[in-house]
Design brief:
With 288 residues, the protein is α/β, with parallel strands linked by helices. The chain is built from eleven helices and eleven strands.
């Protein structure tokens, strides 16, 4: 068997088209505005900010990158966030990761007003996920759910295994799928240490992996015909020493077993970016 590729590009384009159409009908002065907060000059954060700006420009969202010196104190950074919270022209705020070690990212993210938290990391928005509120969920979690829905699988009673229990992917994904009456199991380092990981993954109709460990899931750990959503983004070197991006699933072996699988890159990533745009529009509509 050779799995069908569930590519995110076309799905992301469809989401962007919807957002763009809605914004085009809004008065120019009411276009959504997204402000990204970046501390220091991390190359990864800057590259992500560049991609955000490009995506925002495509759909008509006003984008601003506010940069702060690496030496800024946590208190001063929170004060800057508070100013953005009070700015009526700002609809969405996102903290670019990573931040310097002396700053607690969770504390700063919690300071972002929930109505402007387009990344879905404010405790209030994470709590709303328990109530099945998809719009305020972390963008990656929203992207995973959208990709699963694109397969057309009836989630009612379906066996879902989520490998990874992070606050921005594993936990919210599990809760959102539970809300659709999927039978959901969450695995983590404790499951692996107990030697039970494969026992769970081989029983999954839908396997979602988000742990940041390259090639953790082998083809032998996947149920034949299963849908595999690989959230992992890992930069590794090949045998020739060249850098490449791989997922948490060993693609070459998994593609021979799974029924449907997302590629890395090109799977979850583009949909996550599109969901950020959708969340910014939603924040604008709620905020205004």
């Amino acid at each position: 068997m050779s799995a069908k590729l569930l590519e995110g590009g076309s799905i992301a384009d469809a989401i962007k088209a919807e957002v763009k159409e809605t914004i085009a009908q809004m008065p120019q002065e009411q276009r959504p505005q997204l402000v990204a907060v970046m501390v220091g000059d991390n190359p990864g954060a800057r590259a992500y900010a560049k991609m955000q700006r490009k995506s925002c420009d495509e759909v008509g969202i006003v984008y601003e990158l506010k940069e702060f010196d690496e030496s800024i104190s946590e208190a001063d950074l929170i004060a800057a966030v508070d100013e953005l919270n009070e700015d009526g022209a700002v609809d969405g705020i996102i903290l670019q990761m990573p931040v310097p070690e002396h700053i607690n990212a969770r504390t700063v993210q919690a300071a972002i007003a929930s109505v402007k938290d387009v990344d879905g990391v404010n405790p209030a928005n994470l709590g709303a996920v328990v109530m099945g509120q998809v719009e305020g969920a972390p963008c990656t979690a929203q992207a995973v759910v959208r990709l699963v829905q694109e397969t057309g699988i009836d989630l009612y009673g379906t066996e879902v295994v989520v490998v990874g229990h992070s606050e921005i992917v594993g936990k919210p994904v599990a809760l959102l799928l539970l809300d659709k009456f999927a039978t959901t199991t969450v695995c983590h380092i404790g499951t692996s240490d107990a030697g039970l990981l494969e026992q769970h993954t081989t029983g999954a109709d839908i396997l979602i992996v988000a742990v940041g460990v390259p090639g953790l899931i082998k083809g032998s750990m996947i149920k034949s015909g299963a849908t595999v959503i690989d959230v992992g983004i890992n930069r590794v070197k090949d045998e020739e020493g060249k850098r490449k991006i791989v997922g948490d699933v060993e693609f070459d072996s998994a593609v021979e077993v799974a029924g449907t699988i997302t590629p890395v890159p090109g799977g979850v990533g583009p949909v996550t970016t599109a969901m950020l745009l959708k969340s910014t529009l939603y924040a604008c509509q709620s905020h205004r």
